[in-house]
């Protein structure tokens, strides 16, 4: 029924089915089965966690690891102690039925109910297709808070048996958190390395390759649980560590088997968990207390909202991509509770916790409220708030190259700045992985294969499978995968060169991949390098010429401020003869007073005062006398400047402006003479500077 499934999440429908089945069994007169904690923790939970850890989006997870850890550790501790303290206050005030519940029992209850459940989060968030950031924040928190939940649960369970709790016990409990979390990760890493090393020698028995992945992962979970370490952390660590090396060693058929078997196994476990939750609700013993149940529900919501708001305010001080109010609302609203809390509560001993039935009733109420109310309303709220959805896009060679390039670039920037951020340590880890780890854990030539070629082979194989599934081609050309062929018949390595450490075939293959997948760029006519440029012998001469032109233009701009020439004082005949005798070129006999000066202008911009070429001013000669009296009365006549011939320099080529009369005119204009003192207005320029 598509209309129902689009509104109600699958987990809600499965719980309803469980309630119906439990009611039917009880109506017949039989006793319905109850979800036992041993079955849940040993058989139903590991497949879901292994599927999540093996296919974990590692890049988003590592980039947001700090935020996830703060939400998982600090947020869970805040929820547990805030909820436990308030519930203890409610029990003291609430009446006769709650007075006997002590502080430790309330803190234990708070630690059980405070953790976000990964099964419930996966069931709801995968259906609403939220963006990668919010999904990894909520889901990562639900995975990593297992260590805090396990520590607090066992701690308060042990403290309940003590007659007196000392400060040393509290300090040891605090240290046990690091032992539980880091110990679980350590166990998972060891089993992941063993699984990767084992897969190196399975080239002749491809059938049992998937078995090693499941076997070593399950052994990691059991080993961690055996020592009261975090089994969920061990499963995630083993899946993350083994995946890149196992996929390089195993055949494609084994990879497909692992992928679909894990998906099917986790889906079956999830279905059984929610159905058994419904059946156990009908079959279990319940003790309903309105005050306790409603207070638990209310304080759970308040603690979650306050914790997310406070931690996000602190986290945003250090994040580059800030968490918006919409993101904070989805994170707070997505804190769903599930079967882990129910199973942990079911494990409690009646001898020390005689109020277990009331705890179970309150926990089931909180689970139903979060799964039904929050799970059903989160999709319309995401649409209403216009929260960014997940964009399904296939990775391309272009994206892979630019991602690697930006990683190298950011690593280099961190090295230059002297700031060792996560890019620096990521680069160190990648170098160590390529230099040592890959050679030990990956068989054959694949251990030395460049990352680009490995990614291209993987993408090609994926496209071929999609074409076969869609019926695009009849079959894959070769039934045996290229990976298995390389492992069965290892090639003889060619002699390696010093720089770069790639064979000719690999270089040619990389060039072919780039030619086929990158954008076709325009072919340039000339290729050059800044280190091999030939020096231009005329470059110095051109620079000198440009400097001289600049000086001449500056002089012209200065002369534009002195367009009015002061009247020439009439000298006595004796002074005139003396001046002409000392400098005959500068003091030639004046031309006819009827002639007027001509100012040549640049026709490109005749409106600009800077375009007037005073260097080419000359007095009108007899050949330029106007033919009409109206033209004589016009004053200065504007003539367009004749363009110079191509290839000539208008500064250094001698022309009409170099005649003695023009030089005299230039000298006269550049030195207008002393300013008259009585009338300061006359000494001011006709065109003031700056206008």
Structure summarized in a few sentences:
Residues 479-566 form the Sodium/hydrogen exchanger regulatory region domain. With 691 residues, this protein is mostly helical.
Can you describe what's shown?
The chain is mainly alpha-helical and 691 residues long. Among the domains are: 1-388, Up-down Bundle (Na+/H+ antiporter like fold); 406-450, no CATH class. The chain contains 26 helices and 3 strands. It has helices spanning 2-5, 10-28, 37-54, 58-63, 65-93, 103-114, 118-128, 132-159, 167-199, 209-226, 231-249, 252-283, 290-315, 325-333, 339-346, 356-385, 397-417, 422-441, 451-470, 482-488, 504-517, 539-560, 573-582, 629-632, 660-670, 680-683; strands spanning 597-601, 612-619, 637-640. A 3-stranded mixed β-sheet has the order 2-1-3. Helix 10 packs across helix 12 (252-283). The radius of gyration is 43 Å and the shape is elongated. Belongs to the monovalent cation:proton antiporter 1 (CPA1) transporter (TC 2.A.36) family. Residues 8-382 form the Cation/H+ exchanger transmembrane domain. It is found in: Basolateral cell membrane.
């Amino acid at each position: 029924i598509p209309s129902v499934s689009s509104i109600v999440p699958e987990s809600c429908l499965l719980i309803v089915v469980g309630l119906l089945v439990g009611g039917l069994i009880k109506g017949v007169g039989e006793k319905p089965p109850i979800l036992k904690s041993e079955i849940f923790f040993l058989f139903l939970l590991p497949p879901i966690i292994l599927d999540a850890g093996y296919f974990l989006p590692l890049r988003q997870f590592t980039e947001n690891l700090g935020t996830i850890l703060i939400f998982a550790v600090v947020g869970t501790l805040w929820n547990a102690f805030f909820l436990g303290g308030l519930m203890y206050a409610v029990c003291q005030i609430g009446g006769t039925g709650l007075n006997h519940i002590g502080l430790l029992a309330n803190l234990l209850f708070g630690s059980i109910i405070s953790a976000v459940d990964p099964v419930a989060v996966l069931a709801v968030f995968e259906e609403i297709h939220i963006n990668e950031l919010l999904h990894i924040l909520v889901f990562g928190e639900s995975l990593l808070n297992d260590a805090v939940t396990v520590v607090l649960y066992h701690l308060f369970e042990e403290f309940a048996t003590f007659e007196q709790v000392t400060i040393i016990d509290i300090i040891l409990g605090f240290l046990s958190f690091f032992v539980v979390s880091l110990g679980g990760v350590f166990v998972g890493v060891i089993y992941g390395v063993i699984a990767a090393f084992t897969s190196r020698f399975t080239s002749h028995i491809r059938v049992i390759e998937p078995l090693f992945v499941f076997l070593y992962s399950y052994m990691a979970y059991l080993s961690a649980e055996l020592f009261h370490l975090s089994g969920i952390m061990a499963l995630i660590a083993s899946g993350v560590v083994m995946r890149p090396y196992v996929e390089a060693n195993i055949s494609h058929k084994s990879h497909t088997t692992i992928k679909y078997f894990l998906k099917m196994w986790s889906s079956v476990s999830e279905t059984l968990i929610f159905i058994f939750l419904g059946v156990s609700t009908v079959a279990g013993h319940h003790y309903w207390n309105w005050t306790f149940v409603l207070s638990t529900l209310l304080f759970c919501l308040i603690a979650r909202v306050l914790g997310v708001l406070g931690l996000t305010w602190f986290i945003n001080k250090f994040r580059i991509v800030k968490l918006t109010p919409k993101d904070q609302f989805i994170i707070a609203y997505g804190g769903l509770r599930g079967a882990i809390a129910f199973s942990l509560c079911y494990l409690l001993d009646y001898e020390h916790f005689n109020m277990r039935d009331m705890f179970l009733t309150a926990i089931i109420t909180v689970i139903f409220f979060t799964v039904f109310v929050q799970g059903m309303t989160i999709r319309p709220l995401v649409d209403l708030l216009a929260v960014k959805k997940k964009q399904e896009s296939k990775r391309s060679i272009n994206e892979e190259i630019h991602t690697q390039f930006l990683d190298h670039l950011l690593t280099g920037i961190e090295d230059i700045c002297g700031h060792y951020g996560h890019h620096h340590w990521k680069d160190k880890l990648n170098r160590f992985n390529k230099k040592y780890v890959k050679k030990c854990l990956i068989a054959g030539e694949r251990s030395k294969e460049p990352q680009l070629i490995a990614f291209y082979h993987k993408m090609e194989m994926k496209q071929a499978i999609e074409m076969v599934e869609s019926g695009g081609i009849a079959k894959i050309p070769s039934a045996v995968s290229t990976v298995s062929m390389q492992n069965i018949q290892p090639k003889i390595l060619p002699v390696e060169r010093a720089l770069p450490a790639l064979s000719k075939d690999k270089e040619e293959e990389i060039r072919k991949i780039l030619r086929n997948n990158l954008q076709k760029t325009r072919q340039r006519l000339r290729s050059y390098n800044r280190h091999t440029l030939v020096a231009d012998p005329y470059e110095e001469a051109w620079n000198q010429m440009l400097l001289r032109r600049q000086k001449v233009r500056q002089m012209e701009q200065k002369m534009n401020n002195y367009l009015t020439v002061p009247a020439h004082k009439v000298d006595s005949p004796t002074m005139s003869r003396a001046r002409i005798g000392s400098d005959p070129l500068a003091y030639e006999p004046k031309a006819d007073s009827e002639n007027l000066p001509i100012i040549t202008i640049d026709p490109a911009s005749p409106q600009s005062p800077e375009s007037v070429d005073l260097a080419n001013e000359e007095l009108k000669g007899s050949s330029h006398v106007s033919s009409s009296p109206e033209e004589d009365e016009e004053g200065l006549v504007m003539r367009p400047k004749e363009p110079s011939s191509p290839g000539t320099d208008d500064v250094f080529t001698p022309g009409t402006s170099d005649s003695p009369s023009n030089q005299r005119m230039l000298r006269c204009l550049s030195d207008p003479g002393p300013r008259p003192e009585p009338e300061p207005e006359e000494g001011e320029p006709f065109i003031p500077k700056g206008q």
